[in-house]
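Quick one: structure tokens for this chain, please?
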Amino acid sequence: MSQSQNTVGFVGLGLMGKPMAKNLLDAGYPVVGHNRSQEPVEEIVEYGGDGADTAKEAASRADVVITCLPDSDVVADVMRAEDAIIAGLDGGETVIDMSTISPTVTEDLAEDLAEMGVEMLDAPISGGEEGAIDGTLSIMVGGDADVLATHRDLLDVMGETVTHCGPSGSGQVTKACNQIVVANTMEAISEALVFAEKAGADLQAVVDAISGGAAGCWALDNRAPQMIRGEFDPGFFASYQYKDLRIATDAGEAFGSPMPITEVTHEMYKSMEANGMGRDDNSGVMQVVELLAGTEARIDE
């Protein structure tokens, strides 16, 4: 049986998961989708997939189970509860967790699945909603290299870059590194733009100028133009960034790795949550800097 004939149980059809599942359908993979709310499941069915009432049912009908869920607690529950994924597995399947969760939770789940004869890859993603829609995500994979090789074609449908990072948990460690850089970059850009506003500079000119120099980066190219227009429609929820930074700082504590800047940035995202901004894009952290500064960094058009 070719890999494209493997049935994929896709659990978690949210902002990222739904377009990823659609890309798998486009590539010829049969997909059985399950989600806590029913509307995304109905959309997947209309798109050509099948629906499942429980995570257990999705797993029981699949050769490969993909999860794309908000946090460690949800992943653990969706794996271990009565109508959950483990209850639907017989052995011989592969579980690919594309959520961003704690490396230690990942390692525990991988051990439990291995005892059942089920392989697991932790494969967190980066690239936002755009990357999920376009199939250009960066996928950071922990687990057995041979298992990754078996399922690389499937992951290539969803991601432009698929990197083996080491044994179970390594994908999550790598994703924590990614979020440290992304969040601190968003905070730095926010501080720079609010400073430029306070100093009376042309915000568009500042963005154009620094994007072409040593400060140039993805966030300046893809988020700063929206930030100075007050557009914070989510490509990646700020509440998820807040959660991811707690994973990173907790891991830093566990491994004895100093994270002074990341701890402060985590507090900025906590302030977003406290001020009802958690469903904004993570670039919306600029709004917290603006509150501190008593001004808004916006251009007039």
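The chain has a mean pLDDT of 96.
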